Amino acid sequence: SYGTYGLDMKGNVLWEVDLGDMETRRGFGEGSSPALHDGTVVINWDHEGDSFIVALDARTGKTRWKMERDEVTSWSTPLVVESGGRPQVVVAATGGTRGYDLADGKLLWEIPGMTTNTIPSPVHDGGRVFVMSGFRGNALQAIDLAKASGALQPDAEAVAWSFDEDTPYVPSPLLYNDRLYFLKHNKGILSCFDATSGKRLYGPERLEGLEGVYASPVGAAGRVYVVGRNGTTVVLEDGAAPKVLARNVLDDGFDASPAVAGSELYLRGREHLYRIAAK
Fold first, then answer.
1. Strand order in the sheet with 232-237
2. Is the link from the previous residue into 204 a cis peptide, with omega within 30 of 0?
C-alpha cells in the first residue's frame, strides 16, 4: 500500500505507482511480492476490498492491463511461466488457482482446491506448476499447463497428481532436481516427493533443532537449506532419503527465505544481514 517504485541501479526513482490501500484479513498485512518478466511487472492485489491483478511496464510504470479478481486476501506471489510458446501468470489463492496471459491479462484457466489463507507461491518445472496451501486443511496440486484450459475441477486431467496432507501454511515449496520439498504448516517437518510421479520419497521427517519455519527452503550445490525462526539452519543432502549434513546456529531469528548468489548464501535476520561463503 505504500506504493510501487521503479529505480535505476544508482538508486534514482524513475517512476512510482499508487495502487490504493489494502485491507488485509485480520490486519495480517501484505505479503505478495511483484513478479518481473521481460519488461513487465505483475502485482497481485487480493484483499478484503476490490481485488485485482495488474501488469505494469517495468520501465515507465504505466498500466499494461488490469483484471478484477473475485478473491479475499491472499499472500502468494505470482509466477510467470512459458507454456505453448507464450508466457502466462499463475496465481494461487483461496478461491482458486488461475492462469492469465501475460500479454493482455486474459484468463486462460482456473481451478479450485486451495485452502483458506493461501500463502505459498507456485513453483514450476517440466511443464507443470505445483501449488499448495496448508491452513485449515491441506492441498497440493501438480497442474499440467499443456492440458489446462477453461474452468477446471480438482479431478480434471490437467491435474497430474495431488496430495492432501502435511502441506505448508507460510513457506513455499522447493522444486529441485525433479524432487519437490515442502514443510508441514510452519514447522520443521519436511516431506520430499518425486515431482513427476507424485511418489512420496520420504517424510514427514522432523528436522531436529528447528523451532518454527516461515522461510522457504532453497537448493544449491546438491544441498537443501532450511532456515528456522530460532536462528538454526539445517542442511540436507538433496536426494531420495533424508540425510542431514549440518546444523548451523546464529544468534538471530529468520523469517525471510535465504538467497543464493553464486557460491554465497545471504540470510536476512531480524537483527543483521549475513553473508556466508568460503574464505
1. 218-220, 223-227, 232-237, 244-249
2. yes
pLDDT in tens, 133-159: 999 999 999 999 999 999 999 999 999
Note whether 68 and 14 are within 8 A (CB): no
Counting beta carbons within 10 angstroms of the beta carbon of residue 170, is it exposed (0 to 12), middle (13 to 18) or buried (19 or more)? buried
Can you tell me the distance from the alpha carbon of 159 to that of 161, in angstroms, rounded to the nearest whole number? 5
User: How is 85-125 classified by DSSP, letter by letter?
Assistant: TEEEEEE--SS-EEEEETTT--EEEEE----SS--SPPEEE
**3-state helix, strand and coil shares in percent for the chain, rounded to the nearest 5:** 0, 45, 50
Contacts of 29 (CB under 8 A, 6+ apart): none
The sign of the torsion formed by the CA atoms of 17, 20, 25, 29 equals positive
What is the pTM assigned to this prediction? 0.95
208 residue type, one letter: E
